[in-house]
Amino acid sequence: MTSNTELPPKKKGGRPRKVVRRNQFLGVKCTLIEKKAIEAKARSSALSVSEYLRTVGIGGKINKTEKVLPKEVLQMTGTLNHLAANMNQIAKKRNSYEELNALERATMQQLGIAIRQLAKDIKTYLQ
What we know:
Blueprint: H1 32-44, H2 49-59, H3 71-95, H4 102-126
């Protein structure tokens, strides 16, 4: 006599498992006003906040404008760096109580002229 002691597998009730499980958490810091604005936009889109942020984050477009400085500004910056290096070398020598020779005095005069010209160029550019 064979008896069937095995019971058929019990069917699990409840919600079926999702194919893609979202189990990663991503926190976002924002102000109370930003939070309310995001919640309002999610509500108006008939989405949860998570779904809204995920949709905007993955498919949203951000206007990315690269800030490129004009050629003139870059040249002025380079000139200022060069002048600053020269002035620093001369100041170091003067602070060590050494006298400037004729070449260094001439260089100082040219640096002064270059600084005044650069200041004029900056004023002209900004107007």
